[in-house]
Design goal:
heterodimer; A: alpha/beta; 8 helices; 10 strands; globular; B: mainly alpha; two-stranded antiparallel ribbon; 18 helices; extended
Amino acid sequence: MSIELDNVSIGFGPPSDRYEVLKDINLSVKKNEFVSIIGFSGSGKSTLMNLFAGLHTPDKGTVKLNGEVITEPGPHLGMMFQNYSLLPWLTTFENIALAAAQVFPNYSKKELADHVEHYIEMVKLTPARDRKPHELSGGMRQRASLARTLSLKPEVLILDEPLSALDALTRGSLQEDILNIWEAEKCTVVMVTNDVDEAVLMSDRIAPLTMGPEATLTEPFKVDMERPRDRHALNDHPEYQRLKTEITAYLMRLNKEAKELAAASGSQYTMPSVMPKNFTPISGRPSLNNKVSQPS
Amino acid sequence: MADSKVDKIKYGILKVIDVSGFKVFDPPVRLLFGEEPQKQIKDIGRYMVLPILFVVGCIFLWTVIAPTHKTKSGEVPTPTKVWTAGQDSLRFHEKEDEKEKAFFLSGEDRLAEIKEVEALQAELQAEFEKLEAISKETSANAEAETAKKLAPLQKEYDELKAQYKEAQTARKAALTALSDKVAAKQAKSADLVAAIIDNDTKTDAEKGKLKDIKTAMDDIRSNPPKEVKEAQLAANKVADEIQHGKKRLSYLTTGNLSEKKASFVAKAEDAETALAASTTGKDALKQAKYVVSNTEKADKADEQKYPRAASIVWQTHRSLLTVIVGFIIGALIAIPLGIMCGLNKIVMACLTPLISIFRPVSPVVWLLIFQIVVGAFFPDPEKHPLFVFLNSSINPLSYFQTNPAMIFSACTVAMCALWPALVNTALGVSSIDPDHLNVAKVLRLGFWSRLFKIIIPSSLPLVFAGLRISLGVGWMVLIAAEALSSSDGLGKFVWDEYQNGSSQSFANIILACFVVGIIGFFLDRLMIILQRFVSFDESATL
C-alpha cells in the first residue's frame, strides 16, 4: 500500500493563539517501502504520525492511502504508539486478543487464540503471555505493543518513536526484530525516530523534519544498501558512514540555522516551554535560508 | 524443593495480608518463616507492641477517669461495665433464639426440650437459693455493719438535738425578757435587734450541724458495701435465668405453635361431634359457627411468627441490611450518572448545579423528605403487598421485619452515599488516558465496546475509591437516620437506651459505639480489598 501526504498543514489552538505545527508537507511512501522521518524533539513528529494514522485531519492538503483520502483511523493503519498504550488491566494475550477480535470478528475462539499466539511468538513474548503490562519491562511492553499492531494485519505500519524509550541493547535487538518482521510480512512502514544510526540501519529513505513551528519535510536521503543489513558489518560500510555523516551534518545545520535565524529576527514569537533542557529557548521563526517567509 | 514450597506458602500469606491491608501482620509472618529476625522483631516492636501498649494505656486511663465523673444517668461506665453489657446483650439474643426455637418445636423434640429445660430450672433454682442465702447473709452483715456505724452518729445527733433545743428555749426566754425591758425603756432597742440577729445565726448554725450529721448517716445508708450489690446482682442474674426458663417452658407448652394448632383442631372436632349430636336448630348453628372459627384459627396458626424482641445482634443485622440496600441503590444511580457526566460535557454541565446544591444538604433533611415522600406510597404498611410479601413467614427476609422506616432510612443512605461515588466516577471516566482512547479509535471500537472494554475498566479504581467513601458516609448517616426515624437498627438501639435510662443504658450506648465503629472498620476493609482487586497499578490504596 502506498501512502501519500499532499501539501499537508496542521496547527492547533484558537485563532488568537495559533500554533502552526506542520506546513506544506509532501511525502510519498511506496508500497513495501520503509521510510524514516528524523527530526528534533518538539518538531511535530508525533503530530505527523497522527496524521498518517488518521487521528488528526489536516487543516490543508490531504493524506491518501492508495489514492483514497484518509478520513478516520482504522486497523488498516496500524499505529504503534510512542508510550505503548497497552491497556493496563489486560494481560499481553488479552491486549492483543482485544485488538485482533475487532479486526477479525469471524474468527472462532480457537482461530483467534492461534492468531494471537502467532504474533506473541513472533515478538518472542511467549513467556510473558499472561502477564500484565506493569509486570513487563519497557522492551517487553514495546514488543507487546508491536505484536498488537501487527496482529491487526495493517496495510501500513506507523511506528511513532518505537524505540526511543529503550536502552541501547534492547533497542538493537528490537531493531533487528522489526526488520525481520517487516521482511517476512512485507508491508509499508513509516517510522519516526531521533536516532540517525537507527534510521540509516533500517530505512529505504530518510526524510528530515525541520525545526518547528511550521516544520516541513525536506528532500529525503536515499539509503542504497543491500538487505539484510548486519549492524556490525555496516559499521565499516562506506555508504553507511557517508550517510550518517551527511545526515548528522544536515541536522546540525538545521539546528544552527534555526538559532541564527532566531538571533537575526529578534523575538517575535515565544516558543512553548516544551523544549528539552539542553536546548536554549529561541524566539523568532526558524526556517531554511531559501524559504524565509513574512510573518502573517 | 521443600524450600520453594515453604516460600510459596509464605508469599501467599504475605499477599493476603497485603491485599487485605493488614500490613501490621507482615513482620510476624516473616519472623515465623525466619526472614531477617532482627529487623522483624524491631518492626514488631515499633508497629505492633507500641500501638498495643498505647491502646492498653488508653483503656487504663478510661478505667481510672470514668468513675470520677457523675452524671444524671449514673457514673460513666468503665471498660469492665461495657464488657459486661456486651455479654448481657449477647445472652439476651441467645434467650430470644431459645424462645423462638421453643415456640416452633413440635412432637418428640418438644417433649425432650421440656425435660431438658425442667432439669435446668431445678439446677438454677438450687443455685438461686444458694446465692439468695449468700446475698441475704451479706446484706444482713452489711446492715449490722451499717447499724454499728450509724449508732454513734445517731447518739450524737440525739444529744445535740436535745442540747440545741434547750439552748433555743433559753435564748427565746432571754429575748422575751429583753423585749419587755425595751418596752419599758430600760434597754436600748438596738440591743434587741442585735440579740435577734445573734439568735438567728446561732439557730442556723445548729440546724446546719444537725443536717451534716443526717447527711453523713444517709450516705452510709444509701451506700451499702460493694459486696452486697454484687451478691444481689449475682442472685438477680440467676433469677433472670429462672424467669427465662419459665417463659421458655410456657413457649414449649401452652404458647407452643403446634400445641396451639392442636388445641384449635381439637376444639373444632369437639364442636363437630356436638354439631352431629345437636337437637335444636339454635344449638346446631352455634356449633357449626364454632367449627368454622376454630378451623380457621387452626389454619392461620401456620402463619404465626414468634414475636421476637429486638436484641443488639438483630439490630446490627438490620442496620447492615439497610446500609447495603441503601448503598446499592446509591451506587446504581451514581455510577451510570457518573459515567454519563464523565463522557459528555453537556451532561456534566447540566448536572453540576444539582450536584453542587444537593451535595451539602444534611442527611437529617433528606430523612424527613423521604419520610414524607416514601410514607405516601405506603398509606397502610401492614397490608401493602411489598411488606406482606417481605414479612410473610415463608420468606427468609421476614427476619428483618421490613417496614417503611427501613425503606426511607435506606433512601437517605442512598441519597448521601450517592455524591462521592458520582463525583469520583465522573472524574475517573473523564480522566481516562487519551492514549487508550486513541487505541479505541484505531480499533474502531463501537460505543458500547469502547465503554465496557476501555472506559469502565480504566475508571474502575477511581469508581471503587468513590464507593469506599460512599459506604463510609452511608454507614455514618444510617446510624443518625435510625436514631431519628425509629427504624430498627443500631441507631435506634442507642436512642432507646438513651431514652429508657436504666442502670445499664450508658454502658449499652458505649457498647453500641464500639459495635458501630468495628463494623464501619470492616466495611471499609472490605471496600479496600475490592478496590485492590480492580486496581491494575500496584500503587497502594490506603
